[in-house]
Amino acid sequence: MSNAFSRILALRSIAIVVLLATLIQGLAQDAESVWILPIDTEITPATAQFVASRIERANEVRPLAVLLRIDTPGGRVDSMQRIVDAVMNDARVPVLAVVENAFSAGALIAMSAEQLAMLPGASIGAALPITVGVGGATPVDEKFTSAVRGQFRSVAEARGRDPAVAEAMVDPSREIPGLSARGELVTLSADEAVDQNIADFVASDLSDALRTFGYGGVATVTLERNLTERIGTWLSGPIIAGILLILGLGGLVIEFFSPGFGIPGAIGVIALALFATSAFVATPAGIVDVLLILGGVLLLALEAFVIPGFGVAGVLGLAAIVAAVIRIFQDDAVTVLATTAIGGGVVLGLLLWLLPNTGLGRQLTLSERIGGGLGPASIGAGAGGGGSVEARGGARGEADPARAKLVGDRSDLIGRTGIAMSDLRPAGVARFGSDRVDVVSDGDYVSAGSRLDVLRVEGNRVIVRPSDNENESNRTHDPSPSEDG
Fold it and tell me: How far is CA 216 from CA 36, 100, 479, in A?
């Protein structure tokens, strides 16, 4: 037994040593290579998170260099600023750039690299800041343009590039003789970028660029987004994020009007959880933003399942989620919230049109006739009437049988005694024989199980009060369901 245990221990020790040697060899190989980071989508918070996290990892492993392969139409200014900050201030290894196309935010990211190569047919520039709203894309005000223009100048000066040309990419009022007239943004071809001292050289391909950078023949490692980052990137897009909010808030709203916890509530909680997770994985959302979302969900759940009605907890829950959306998405927050509002309205309309018999539909639509169209039989015997329906013809106020069949008319219940199936606060449900009827207390709270007398019927409202003497033997009462049979 002892020898067998010793052999097992020795084998495990050897396996651990081999594993550690493999990991060390892998790290050594990574350290002797150039890491390639593709930036081939719109610049979003997910892009910034991807680049910043890989540069942080490069600081630990220390590869020979990090190369940004850029082919982007541009994107968000805040995400651009985060990437530039990571490249210029956080990186502890050389950061290079090879440009296929670098428009708008991509232009500043490319210029922030220590060395910049252009591929044949590439372009760089056209960086006018815009804002996207309900009316479409419009240029931002001069204050914001000035700030971005200053950042382009600052980065160009730090990397030894022409600051005047860099500014003209942002501001169409800046004229560059022989290159652009006043009112035109500067966009440079590959050769023009070299001639105007924006790029360092034109390379025929990626290998040629690496050779010119001084890394010819060096192994390369392309770092792609992992599955979690890809899913998070997709879910954190403004439109998808808005749809998740529609499903989340809509599912909980439906639960507000339906007893218990069912499929809509489960879908709502899952959608909001996905929204919070994707925001944390693929955006610059911090713990405060995630806590705001979770706090908003908890407040909405409290409103749905604990506190009746829709009040302070529900308003605070919505406010917390809206605040988190604004903090996380910033420039895209309007798109997210607008998508949520418009989509939510469309979904609500479809629910009320297609599902009129759901709990939500019954709460928001009138499905029964109210007293007025019932003809002469609905007029009370007394002078005052007041819209109430009074019984005739019997010692206990028996109603006209034909009239009892009319939609919404429950005058046949007048004078009868039933059992409260739920607490009346003041509304609730009571049983009269085999019928379950929505009733309203005459003012007092009535606990479930109490015997009830029907006082009067007003339209489709059945008004009851607790029986004066539940044990009175000669009181007219409802037969049990077995007696009705």
Answer: 14, 20, 96
SS (H, E, C) 327-390: HHHHHHHHHHHHHHHHHHHHHHHHHHHHCCCCHHHHHHCCCCCCHHHHCHHHCCCCCCCCCCEC
pTM over 0.70: no
**pLDDT of residue 422 exceeding 70:** yes
Report CA 16 to chain centroid distance, whole Å: 44
Burial of residue 42 (CB within 10 Å: 0-12, 13-18, 19+) is middle
Q: Which of 22-36, 241-255, 428-442, 464-478 has the highest mean pLDDT?
A: 428-442
- Confidence (pLDDT) at 78: 84
* Joined tokens for residue 466: 């607790």
Per-residue pLDDT tens digits for 454-471? 888 877 788 888 887 654
Q: DSSP letters of 237-300?
A: SHHHHHHHHHHHHHHHHHHHTSSS--HHHHHHHHHHHHHHHHHHHHS---HHHHHHHHHHHHHH
Q: Which residues contact 370 (CB under 8 A, 6 or more apart)?
A: 408, 459, 460
Backbone CA torsion sign across 183, 154, 148, 39? positive
Tokens of 308: 């009746």
Q: How far apart are CA 456 and CA 462, in angstroms?
A: 6
